[in-house]
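Q: Convert this sequence to structure tokens.
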Amino acid sequence: MAKIAYILLCHKDPVSIIRQAERLTAVGDYMSIHFDASADAEHYRKIRKALDDNPNVTFAAKRIKCGWGEWSLVQATLNAVQAAVTTFPRATHFYMLSGDCMAIKAAEYTHSFLDNDDVDYIESVDYFDSGWIKTGWTEERLIYRHWFNERTQKKRFYAMFELQKRLGLTRNIPSDIQVQIGSQWWCLRRRTIESLLEFCAQRRDVIRFFRTTWIPDETFFQTVVRHLVPEKEIRSRTLTFLMFTDYGMPVTFYNDHYDLLLSQDYLFARKISADAHDLKRRLGLLYAAQGVQFQISNEGRSLFRFLTGRGRIGRRFSTRFWETESTLGRERELLIVVCKKWHVAKRVLEHIRQTTNVPAIEYVFNEETAPLPALGGIEKTLGKRTRHRRALVRMLFDYFETDRLIVCMDPSNLELLEDFVADRSVTRILEIECIFTDEYLVGHSMRVGLAGEQTSQETLDRLLPTIRNDMIYESDAIRDAQFENHSRMRESASSGENAEQLANFLGLSVEKAHEITSTENLFAD
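A:
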């Protein structure tokens, strides 16, 4: 059975470190601690006093003063790893942790998980081709030497960079390695760790290279493991659940995140708030628990994007020049069907096609697979369609050789509705208001990735009101916009009432419109 040696890098909060070490070693696992040499000496003495008698805990023989983005973080990790390898000969896996990580699975589950697959878990993707680095330096991290800390010695850091750049003092990457990049939170097998330490002893040229790269904790282990271990024995992922905000800051977890964390397909989570005392207590008890069944739904990241995205509705930079200078045409009429239930709108649209000769396109700005003619590439992606929306619709008018066109949109596309209504052409909107049952909302949340098959009912009960309110908000926003030509069909209204609204939208007789609105199961799910 797997026995894990946890490699813990920390620099503060001695009480939490002591508790974490006691929890993780109580079930027979091990821990090797590196406490930052620049941190409070009294804190280190407190940790040593509490844990020196624990046979399953060891400490790095040499402590390093650590700085963000420096080689010191890698060296501190290697020192802790070496201590663990020497002290714990029965350890089968070595798992990298920080002081604000906590287990979100029981030890029983964790050991079984690692036993099931004889592989290393380390996110490692090609440094240059993967797009892992979103902004800032890429090649510059490697080909120039970085001796100073960017955060504490900013002037020296950038002065040395500019000097090397001006003098052309670049260097080559060691020819036999392919640089990789990824998260620093890994879990490696013993034989991989032993091979890595041997590699470090033999390949001083590689060590010298990484010593002066920038942020080597994202590249050193990732590169060396790929160099030493066959690809089939590597899972390019981390077992530590972490998320980042739009500003690149780690998401912090609090007391009410307990159920969400347990449902993720990870073994640990980072970062746990120092103030989340109840969450820490419950997770601490969890690691030693027996027979716990975990329902993995893994919706954490999509749920976070959805909920945080609510605060960004309506925010946008200034209008693009091609939008302000373009128009659909003063004599043209754009008819927009707005409905959250896409299948209902498509059903209505199909009956409109059979009754009128007006060309109709389905969710052109929401559905990648919406049937569109070839328009020179502007139709290829949703991003292009949305950026060049007026140009796209103008080309559709020209393609169908018509002055009337119907398209479908999701109620979330308020910005697009406002843009089209502001055009010189005539824009008419038909909003189809549907009833949303709990069953429908559960299915919707699964379709968009907010929930999974194994999501607990408790989580769904908390999520459904948010989704329902979000849909109500979208409808209210359209109503608040007070569009001039706005008609509304309602599932709760009679066929005759809906026929009047549809007739007004299409310019049909009420009798013709009634043929559509009286269709059986028009609003059915």
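The first strand starts at residue 4 and ends at 10.
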